[in-house]
Amino acid sequence: MDLLIKNGTIITAAETFVGDIAVNDGKIVCVGMNLPVVAEKVVDAAGKLVLPGAIDAHTHLAMPFGGTVSADSYLAGTRAAACGGVTTVFDYPMQRKGFGIIETVEARKAICDVEACVDYAFHCCITDLNDGAILDEFEAAVNYGITSFKCFLVYKKEGMMVDDGTLVKVLLKAKEVGAMTNIHAENPDLIDLYTAQFLKEGKTSAWYHYMSRPEFVEAEADKRAVHWASSVEASLYLVHMADKEGLEAAVAAKREGHDIYIETCPQYLEFTCDVYKREDGRNFVCSPPMKGEESKEALWKAIRQGAIDTVATDHCPFQSYEKDWGKDDFTKIPNGCAGVENLYPYMLSAANEGKITFNRAVELCSTNPAKLFGCKQKGSLAVGKDADIVIYDPYKDVTISVSNMHSDYDHTIWEGKKIHGYPVQTYVRGKLVYDNGDFVGTPGFGEFVKREPRK
Ligand code: URP
Ligand code: ZN
Ligand code: ZN
Ligand code: ZN
């Protein structure tokens, strides 16, 4: 055997038990008590937790946006991922008018081939149907391993927004080929209305980013997406949900039996819109914005009740000088924040503090995204799966600072956050990529995850 991890407390979405895990050729080959195995490398994990690597189902690496490009390249973003216990990242390539899905994805895959330090998959954003040619390409995309597509109901001026007719066409075609449709839901017309009004009134601080897209602006679009998906009986995955009203509508539709899934992000579980009143409020500008305390509480409640399916990051950092473009005009702040390295430590810390169980943290950050998005070799510590493994020390405390993170950005909204318990090792397909504070992986080691269609 290549690797034996002994005496750890093994945590899966369903079980907790003390045991050993044997790894050979990148796969988990045996799980049990006192395995009689000889291995090249033996790691004693006594007193530690052994978890499946996290899957961050929502990142934007090297993404052209807001007049610039997000600060983390595929190399920096996946290096940071490894150091936060994330063994697979999903990125969002952006199909543009005149371009196909597979060529869009292949351009990004070519970069990942040399840069990715952990495994990677793609949801493809659809911005233009190219007179229907894009819909005809869905089946080929699914066969290629792209089994999810995304539509933005906002970002008109960025040329990313789709109308309801396009959304329904995508939902129907995705259903036909066994794909999931991911939606960014906010109402663009209301955002434009409020934005114009605030600018006219000279209300230009980061607070007005929130005020131009408050709870009901997200709720309307959440409900619209739920309505269309339910009406045509298609699968829907609402990304980065942040508001209580929309959440409740989505949960209700789920409970009625519709194929609807909900993602939220650590930033919505930690912060409220009050951050936009801070002097550095622009650094917290992302869309949708953080909401009020009631929404934050509702998200935690839904997490505890099992109504939220995944927690992912929407990792999309920008440098301070770029955030500063919007010092005197919130519309000029590039939207997005850092998070990929903080996802698993944050959710596991919540488990360590008793807010949720460790099993639930694993389910939200690993097992569910693997299942929902067809990564059949990922998301659990079962025999035959990829040996994507995190060893976690429940007693190691870390205070997050930009100086101990592994991305390329120069500031983080998580600065000063105390994390109770921390990953000490990350393995991707049996290879050690993170060891006690240090990145030890190799750019280009990460592999494309060819995903399965939905049944
Ligand atoms: O503010 C954000 N979230 N930026 C990234 C693009 C998106 O909306 O997901
Ligand atoms: Zn979004
Ligand atoms: Zn996003
Ligand atoms: Zn502690």
TrEMBL record:
Record-annotated Amidohydrolase-related domain positions: 49-433
Modified residues (N6-carboxylysine): K150
Database matches in Pfam families: Amidohydro_1
Modifications the protein undergoes after translation, according to the UniProt entry: Carbamylation allows a single lysine to coordinate two divalent metal cations.
InterPro entries xrefs: Amidohydro-rel, Hydantoinase/dihydroPyrase, Metal-dep_hydrolase_composite, Metal_Hydrolase, Metallo-dep_Hydrolases_sf
Enzyme class at the top of the EC tree: hydrolase
GO annotations of cellular component type: cytoplasm
Keywords attached to this entry: Hydrolase, Metal-binding
EC number(s) recorded for this UniProt protein: 3.5.2.2
Cofactor(s) essential for the protein: Zn(2+)
Entry GO MF terms: dihydropyrimidinase activity; metal ion binding
Family that this chain belongs to: Belongs to the metallo-dependent hydrolases superfamily. Hydantoinase/dihydropyrimidinase family.
Name used for this protein in its record: Dihydropyrimidinase
Taxonomic lineage from the root: Bacteria, Bacillati, Bacillota, Clostridia, Lachnospirales
